[in-house]
Amino acid sequence: MQMKLELIPVPVSDIERAKDFYINKIGFNLDVDQQVSEDLHFIQLTPPGSACSISIGKGITDDMKPGSLKGLQMVVADAQAAHDELADRGVDVSDVQVAPWGSFVYFSDPDGNSWALQQLPPRNAH
To answer: What value, to the nearest 5°, has the Cα angle with vertex 11 and ends 64 and 31?
Structure first.
């Protein structure tokens, strides 16, 4: 059986603020912004080059506290370049942290949902 993770709900308190952050600060693409009903507003956003998207909105994460999602991770080709681009866009981003398993940059959205960007280490040639 094959399974692909394609959508992660992210709990936010202010839909428009979160949408602006993910699109204009982080660079996600807006895929869907649909007000289905008074109780359901579905927004789907996808990082450039990713097969997995996030969803924010009303009626999406009612059982989750805004800011409670921790440790979401995306892979980037160059952690320092990602750091510099996000910093230039006004994101409060950590310095690049280097570990044997990769280089990392950390940031949080306005609600405190936390993200990591990982540059994978070079693969050993056998």
So the answer is: 140
